[in-house]
Amino acid sequence: MKKKVFLGLLIGLFGILAGCSAKKASLSCQKEDTSMIDMKTAQTYTITFKKNKIARIETSSTIKVDGVYKKYTKELLESLEQQFATVKDKKGVTVKPNKSEDKVSIKATLEVTKMEKETKESFTMLGLYLDKVDEAKTKKGLEDQGFTCK
Fold first, then answer.
1. Helix (H, G, I), strand (E, B) or coil at 146
2. pTM, full prediction
3. Range of the domain at 86
4. Given Cys at both, which of 41, 43, 69, 77 links 104, Cβ 3.0 to 4.6 Å?
5. pLDDT tens by residue, 40-66
């Protein structure tokens, strides 16, 4: 289960970071998964492009649980936090986890224009090329993964 959530978020971030736009533009994408009993996941991305590059990414992932999964909210949150463990304290990265009795969520803001080269490279090692993406390719990549974008 943790692997499914982690893989989904990683694929989502990968899809965001695949392309370059000529002017300042914004892309907003959402995806929900209700395929598991007693668990619903939702992911959103808001990406701002400026001068053919991603300037900012806001991402939110939420897992709402019922039944037997309620006792695992701590572990679910730790799984979400692990994705940002190596960059959460870096310049240009803000990570805000949250947990309640039946829901865990994490919001992250990546201010790409404020990141140091080392931080950007840590995303590159995951296949995320923050300096080489455009809106059209990003949108197509996310839609291919089941996201609805506008």
1. coil
2. 0.75
3. 2-149
4. 77
5. 999 999 999 987 778 899 999 999 999
